[in-house]
Each structure stands twice: as C-alpha cells, then as structure tokens.
Amino acid sequence: MVNALNLPTQLRGRHGDPHQRVQGVVDQVLEGTDRPRVLEAGCGSLSRVNLPNQRVLVGIDIEQRQLDRNTSLDEKILGDLQTMATPVSGYDLVLCWDVIEHLPSPMQALERMTAALNPGGGLVLAFPHLWSLKGLLTKFTPYFVHALFYRYIVGDKRRSDEWDQFPTFFRASIAPARLRAWAAQHGLEVAYDEIYEGPVQTALRSRNRLLDTSFAALGAASRVMSFGRLDLGLSDCVLVLRRPSFTAGV
Predict the structure, then answer these.
(1) CB-based contact 51:38 (threshold 8 Å)
(2) Deepest in the core among 83, 144, 211, 232, taking most CB within 10 A?
C-alpha cells in the first residue's frame, strides 16, 4: 500500500539503517516550503535528519545542558514536551527521536506536538519497539541496568554528565499499533511506518556470532508463533505522521 507521498506506509524487517528512507519522507514533506520552521522535540545535541540551510530550527528540551550542546538551533526553549505551551500551528516539521519512551505521559506530548503542526506538516517519531526483546527488557529493567549495558556492553565511555541515557517509562500507549490507531482517531495521515533492527543491536550481532544466531532464532520463533504478526528481533520503530493539508469538504 502506498500513500500520497508515493512511499510504502509500512515496512517490516531488516532493511538496514532507515535514515535515508526517513530523509526522503522529510524532503517531500518540506518540498516547496520557503524557510520551513522545524521543532526538535527533546533536541539533544544534534539533528537526525538533514534540513534545508534556509530554515528556522527551534529546540525544546527539559535539560539546559542538552540545549547548550546543540549548536544548530536558532531558538532554544527550556521546557517539558508534556506540558509545553504550543501554538495551534506554526511548525512545518517536528522531530522527536528516541524521546517518547522516556516520557511518563507520552500522549500529552503527542497532543502538543501534532497541534503545533501547520497543515501538511509532518511529525517524525523514532523509538524502540515495545514488542521486541529490546523493548521488553528496557521496560521491565531499572535504569541502572540500562546504564551498565551502555557502559560495559555497548562501550560508551563518556562521563555520566555527558550521557544521553535517561530513565525509561515506555508506556504501552506508544506501541506502534496503538500509535497508528491514535493517529487515525485524530485525523492524521501515516506517511511512513517502519519496524527495523536498530543500530545498537546490529552492531552487537556483528561482533558476536552467538548473539547473531540467538537473535535470528528469536525472530524466527516469534514470527512462527504469532503467524507473522510479531518479530521480537526487530528492535526499533520510525513513524511519520502528517497533518492533512486541507479539510475535507472545504
């Protein structure tokens, strides 16, 4: 099935790094927009997509440290995505990458982010897939376990005050199927939807043959047992929602 962007609305499987595909969607969302206004929601220190040189880039983050690290921003807002005041519209693109799983009230943040979109604007959401081994372990293990994993397994040797690791709430409301249903209820188009194997898991599999074999077996077993509806080996999701550019009947 394809949508108005002439792109597949849902991909499932090991298709490699999705950034190039997401970039294509972003380019089409912003096509023809003069000096687009972009919101980095939970901005961190860098953007995950390439943006036009002539753009206004606004970042909002709950930590001043994160805002200070991001040198690409034209405007900086210290605030909480779940309670921020937003205009009825105003942004052509909202980027929210690896953020919503860390929010105790993610749907409040989604309400605000989508309300901030101009007609035709897009919201890019990237987050771990809840119904995966990574997602389930992330949800049901405490933060210190996550910190130990990134320190000693992934090899992140940065000081703790430089980390991008945060406590994870991982509400069930951000499971992909629930988000798609929420989008439909709110009149939003699903411009792009992919479930894939994330870079951390891919890197670990490439380093260790036993891990590679184990993840392959886990994925195969979960597909068989769920009749193809579930793959516990696919660890991450990216979903692009788009506000319609016109109102039906007008």
Answers:
(1) yes
(2) 232
pLDDT at 227: 76
Q: State residue 159's pLDDT score.
A: 59
What is this structure's pTM?
A: 0.84
The CATH code of the domain that includes 206 is 3.40.50.150
Specify burial of residue 35 (Cβ count, 10 A radius: 0-12, 13-18, 19+).
exposed
Percentages helix, strand, coil for the chain (3-state, rounded to 5) are: 35, 20, 40
- Domain residues for the domain of 212 are 11-242
**4-63 tens-digit pLDDT:** 444 444 555 545 678 889 999 999 999 999 999 999 998 876 678 999 999 999 999 998
Of 91, 99, 145, which is closest to residue 118 (Cα–Cα)? 91
For the record, the structure tokens of 214 come out as: 């184990």
Contact 170, 139 (CB under 8 A): yes
At 224 the three-state DSSP class reads helix
